[in-house]
Design goal:
10 strands, alpha+beta, 3-stranded antiparallel β-sheet, 158 residues
């Protein structure tokens, strides 16, 4: 069991009410993406100096799951046009507007939490489903927002 060098505590399971980050102002960011994790589980001590991810590979595990759990538009192999992730109807990318998306996580080894993403979304004209206008740039901006949140709260790998 790891201990804090400052207070000598063994690190135990704790949580922040929320942890937020964004891609705004990040180098290479193309879209504004805001991300909030509520609550944010971590391993910590009583003095607060030591904060670590709830288990090894927590963040590498959560990052791709965000794409899997959120409704996302599909991008054609050729031409790069977006189509509805539910029904396949073509989507007009120019109608993208900021939307809020939420996904619940229940991972083994930690408490359940919700990931909220505010980013460019589209509504399908055919089936009405709202989805993230996920292209390569938005995917990378989403990673930037998560890294920003981790940096702000000084959570280190476990
Ligand atoms: Zn401490
Ligand atoms: Zn559709």
């Amino acid at each position: 069991m790891k201990r804090c060098k400052q207070c000598g505590d063994e690190l135990t399971a704790r949580q922040l009410p929320s942890m937020a980050g964004s891609s705004v102002g990040q180098k290479g960011a193309g879209n504004d993406v805001r991300l909030v994790i509520q609550p944010m589980p971590y391993l910590g001590c009583s003095c607060g100096a030591e904060r670590r991810a709830p288990f090894p590979d927590f963040f590498p595990e959560v990052r791709p799951m965000i794409n899997d759990k959120l409704p996302v538009a599909k991008r054609a192999m050729f031409g790069g046009k977006l189509s509805c992730g539910s029904c396949g109807h073509p989507l007009a990318s120019d109608l993208a507007a900021m939307r809020t998306f939420r996904a619940s996580f229940a991972l083994e080894g930690t408490i359940p939490f919700v990931v909220e993403i505010v980013a460019k979304g589209l509504t399908c004209a055919s089936c009405g489903s709202e989805q993230l206008a996920l292209d390569k740039q938005l995917d990378s901006d989403l990673s930037d927002a998560l890294i920003d949140a981790i940096d702000r709260e000084r959570i280190k790998p476990t």
